[in-house]
Amino acid sequence: MKRIDTYILAKYLKTFLLALALIIVIVITFDVSEKLDKFISHHATLGQVVFDYYLNFIPGFVNLYSPLFIFISVLFFTSKMAGNTEIIAILGSGISYRRLLRPYTYGSVLVALTVLLLGNFVIPVSNRHLIDFEEQYVKSKATSYYSNLHFQSEPGVQVYAESYDVKKARAVKFCREALKPDGSLTRRETADIILYDSASSSWRCIGYTLRTIDDQGREHLERQSHYNADFGIVPDDFDLLSKRIETMTTPQLLRHIERERIRGTGTVKEALIELYQRLLNPLAIVVMTFIGVAIASRKTRGGIGMHLAIGITLAFGFIVFMKITTVFSIGGNLSPFMAVLLPQLVFGIAAAYLIYKAAK
Q1: 3-state DSSP call for residue 182?
Q2: Where is 284: in which H helix or E strand?
Q3: Is the pLDDT of residue 41 over 70?
Q4: For 129-166, what is the HEC assignment?
Q5: Domain residue extents for the chain
Q6: What is the pTM of this model?
Q7: What count of Cα atoms within 13 Å lies in the side-chain half-sphere of residue 103?
Q8: Cα 5 to Cα 167: distance, rounded to the nearest angstrom
Q9: Which of 121, 134, 171, 281 is the most buried (most CB within 10 A)?
Q10: What is the DSSP secondary-structure string of 203-233?
Q11: Do the Cβ atoms of 147 and 172 come closer than 8 Å?
Q12: pLDDT-derived band of residue 308, with 50, 70 and 90 as boundaries?
């Protein structure tokens, strides 16, 4: 790295970290003023508020808004350099515009890799602690009772329950059906109540009934007042809150997606969008860096103010575009991969065009 690379890279990182620190302080100040009464009423200690809540709040905030603050930071310090004719001096010394972009590339890749690591492994763990704290000290208690549950536990096996109590690990009016590929019934198990026995990893059934149908269509019925059964399911299969995808690391999320595909619960799209956002959203940092350089490197009459106005408009356009494609994916036919990639692709092309024009 040359001295000019170190100079620009230091400005890149310092401006970004300073902007991020300032906005985090502002956000936390407003959040404390809003939730202080709840912290006091639920007897949360200062240590719990600082270390269990806000320390776990910061990584998610950084991950979510990094592209926006990178963009604003690049606009700010590059526009200031252009206003002080530093960009003109650099280019006038024989350095090409493409060479000028090298320290920006270093900085954006460094931040993108950090965000990638945070989003896939650190933030899910932080979210888990954050949600636990909110449920105990901020929000009302988590739902511990569900009704009218239906899912596929494995291919060809459907599970139903009229209600399920999370705390007691008890389901009422339970039914498990095994079906052939043509949809015909081969086995049906029902119970008035099932209770999970963690010691034996099985379900204790009250009012158990087993109905089987052979290949000739003959039925066999068996009833028992008490019966221990292994249905191939565990209590977490009933607990919807145990499947919060934002609390899963990426390896856990991949296993969850595979299982939900088998279960046929209809939540696969949301999980896939979460996965692709973790993997592809760091690219937005690189894209927004190049757009920021292209806009701010030219000295204009409006100065920093004009650059910030244009840049913030583009940044929020990018965020809105991402939200729109996500909605189209969940409620329409757009694939989750394209829903996440499309905004990056469109703005990446825009960044390439702006860089090309700026180099001219």
Answers
A1: coil
A2: helix 282-296
A3: yes
A4: HHHHHHHHHHCCCCCCEEEEEEEEEECCEEEEEEEEEC
A5: 3-139+268-359, 167-237
A6: 0.78
A7: 18
A8: 58
A9: 171
A10: EEEEEEEEEEE-TT--EEEEEEEEEEE--S-
A11: no
A12: confident
